[in-house]
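Practice problem: predict the structure.
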Amino acid sequence: MTRLLQAMAGAPHGGAEAFFERLAPALHRAGITQQVLIRANPKRAALLRAGGVEVVELPFGGALDLVTRWRFAQEVKRFQPDLVLSWMNRASKFVPKGDFVTVGRLGGYYDLKYYRACDHLIGNTPDIRDWIIGQGWPTERAHYVPNFVADTKAKPVSRASLDTPPGAPLVVAMGRLHANKGFDVLLRAVESIHDCYLWIAGEGPLRAELEELAAHLAVKPRVRFLGWRDDVAALYASGDVFVCPSRHEPLGNVVIEAWAAAKPVIACAAQGPRQLIADGIDGVLTPIDDDKALAAAIRRLLAEPDTAKAMAAAGRKAYEERFTEAAVVAAYLDFFAKVKR
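Answer:
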């Protein structure tokens, strides 16, 4: 029986953090004996404990955080893991030495100096794995294991609750309000689709700037900035088209979530979406930073419901084949069996 200790020192919200919150309970359901260490976050701790996972909250501070370093070592000594899986840079630098296999999980193109002590690295896309190898990491110690998203059904959010006409074409987008996510491009695209409404779920440093841009473009009456939402399945169910306008997107969890919800997807051709999407089959890819091409793609899927329906069905098929909980948990179990001593 595998004994797994996971360490996550992430932010309150984010794609990696959300996947960690799905994976740890899923591994528990699959019979893995686990201990997780997280950066202090009562909401995350409660969610994990409700999923049957043992949780210890630590500060996970800067270089002078001796408390976390000592507590981490004590938990390793107490739990006696076969493997320690660390998520991203901050958690990885606190992993102590010991008689266990160390694994770093990367959801982006991070500086590998934080992972020098790891025995193995996981990238959640083939491109990230290949990039790790390209940095000089041994091929046999670099692995690809994808993310999964929950197959959650939900009733659509009431359009009236968000002051959106019942018959209006509706585009939904989600993500951190950051330059990498390209929401400024999406706002410019929607400007030229005069009857289209847009819901953007997410928070971030550019919220005020994006709201100002929406006002400048005169699309603000048709745009709803929803903030961070926990009812994402209901939001996916509400829209006619899902758009991922990112300039930089290592994976694109939102694409997989939209596929799971059987919604047609349009994405700019950042790293992750262009690996996921077969253009014209299970989604549409447009050039990065090209609001005119993005607008044309949105217009097409809104005007061709049969095309949109076929792409949504193909996306759902891709999800069922590659990105369900069962498929990804099986891949993790195979990986653990392969690398543990």
